[in-house]
Amino acid sequence: MANIMIRQAEHGGLSFYLPKRDLEASIESIEFDTPEKWGGELKLDNGGAYYIEPIARPPRLPISLRARRLGAAED
Amino acid sequence: MAVLTRDETDALIAEVLEVYPEKAKKDRAKHLAVNDQSVEQSKKCITSNRKSLPGVMTIRGCAYAGSKGVVWGPIKDMIHISHGPVGCGQYSRAGRRNYYVGTTGVDSFGTMNFTSDFQEKDIVFGGDKKLAKLIEEIEGLFPLNKGISVQSECPIGLIGDDIEAVSKKASASFDKPVVPVRCEGFRGVSQSLGHHIANDAIRDWVLDKRDGQPHESTPYDVAIIGDYNIGGDAWATRILLEEMGLRVVAQWSGDGTLAEMMNTPKVKLNLLHCYRSMNYISRHMEEKYGIPYMEYNFFGPTKIIESLRKIAAFFDDSIKEKCEQVIARYQPMMDEIIAKYRPRLEGKKVMLYVGGLRPRHVIGAYEDLGMEVIGTGYEFGHNDDYDRTIKEMGDATLLYDDVTGFELEEFVKRLKPDMVGSGIKEKYIFQKMGIPLRQMHSWDYSGPYHGYDGFAIFARDMDIALANPVWHNMTPPWKKTSDAENEAIAA
Ligand code: SF4
Question: Which of A6, B7, B199, B424 could be stapled to B281 by a disulfide with Cβ–Cβ 3.0 to 4.6 Å?
Answer without folding.
Answer: B199
